[in-house]
Fold this sequence. Notes:
Elements: E1 2-3, H1 22-45, E2 57-64, E3 72-73, H2 74-88, E4 89-101, E5 105-116, E6 122-134, E7 137-144, H3 147-153
Amino acid sequence: MILAGGSNPPREPAQRSPAAPAGAILLVVSQQNIELIQAWFERWNRDDRGFSADEELHPDFQVISRLQSEPFRGREGLRRWMEEIDEHFQEWELVGEEWRDAGDRVAVVGHVRLRGKESGVGFDQPVGWLFEFKEGRLFRLRNFVRPEEALEAAGLRE
Length: 158
């Protein structure tokens, strides 16, 4: 499934009627995963950098950044990761242009618009993100400098 934007209704548990095909529940869950990430991008860009409910983040959540040798772990790790970004950039906007469903993973291709705090220099960087879900919650976030790397890591080809 490829999406380019869309509305972000509240996330509800996936349910399937007994007559629905077996793949229908996967499609609903995948759509909910994409909507969760889209809502997070929107909140991030409004400077609301948290997750709205504990049920959105898996207890073993991690952010894997190319700038750190070790992942940021848990809700506290996510908070520290965001604080580090805010320390270095006065502006940081996430722009998702393509949302690709890969079952329990969502690959996003887009770019970030940045402006350094000290330098004031702005730039627009293509990036890819891979969001992985476990037990219905966001388990891992990985950032990629080359957008196609996110698609490859999700098992998707362009």
